[in-house]
C-alpha cells in the first residue's frame, strides 16, 4: 500500500484516494449487487450474493467488471483449500477491493478419500476420528459454460 518512509498523513491520503476510486468504480457498475461487509486499513470487503441459483454467474460478472480497465498486476485470485471463500482482489492504488463468495458456489467439492486423525476431546486426551479428504475442482471463473461442459 505505501512506501516505508511515507508519513501517517500520506498513508491516510493514499487510502482516501483508493477508497474514492473504489466508490467511483462501484457507482459505475450498478448492475453488480454488493454487500459491503467491512472497510479496513487495506481496503474494502464486498460480498457478492453467494447462494442460490445464479451465484457462479453473478461472481463471474463481478469479476469481469472488476477486471475492466484494471492495470496489469492489480487483480489477484484466491481459491486456497484452507479458506471457505473464493476471492478476487483488485488494487485501486491505496486501497483494495475484495469481492468474494462461498467457494462451494463456484467450485465442486470432491471427496477423494478419508484419513484418521487424533484430535483433543474433553473426556480423553486424544481420540481418533475419521475425516474426509477434500479436493475442490474450480473451473476458471470466467470460463464460458458452453465451452467447459
Largest sheet: 5 strands, mixed
The portion of residues assigned to helices is: 10-25%
Overall geometry comes to: globular
Low-confidence stretches: 145-149
The tally of beta strands, per DSSP, is 7
Separation of termini?
40 Å
Give the mean pLDDT: 81
How much strand? 35-45%
Oligomerization state: single chain
What is the C-level CATH assignment of the domain at 8-106?
Alpha Beta
Look up the CATH topology of the domain at 8-106: Beta Polymerase, domain 2
Give the H and E element order. Answer: HEEHEEEHEE
Number of helices: 3
Instruction: State the CATH architecture of the domain at 8-106.
Output: 2-Layer Sandwich
Structural class: alpha+beta
Please state how the strands of the largest beta sheet are arranged side by side. 1-2-5-4-3
The Cα radius of gyration reads 19 Å
Amino acid at each position: 500500500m505505501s512506501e516505508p518512509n511515507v508519513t501517517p498523513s500520506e498513508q491516510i491520503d493514499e487510502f482516501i484516494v483508493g477508497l474514492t476510486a473504489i466508490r467511483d468504480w462501484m457507482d459505475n457498475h450498478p448492475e453488480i449487487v454488493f454487500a459491503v461487509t467491512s472497510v479496513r486499513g487495506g481496503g474494502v470487503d464486498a460480498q457478492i450474493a453467494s447462494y442460490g441459483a445464479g451465484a457462479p454467474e453473478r461472481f463471474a460478472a463481478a469479476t469481469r467488471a472488476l477486471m475492466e480497465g484494471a492495470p496489469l498486476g492489480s487483480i489477484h485470485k484466491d481459491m486456497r483449500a484452507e479458506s471457505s471463500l473464493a476471492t478476487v482482489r483488485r488494487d485501486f492504488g491505496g486501497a483494495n477491493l475484495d469481492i468474494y463468495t462461498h467457494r462451494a458456489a463456484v467450485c465442486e467439492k470432491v471427496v477423494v478419500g478419508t484419513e484418521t486423525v487424533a484430535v483433543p476431546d474433553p473426556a480423553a486426551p486424544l481420540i481418533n476420528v475419521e475425516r474426509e479428504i477434500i479436493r475442490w475442482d474450480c473451473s476458471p471463473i470466467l470460463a464460458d459454460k458452453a465451452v467447459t461442459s
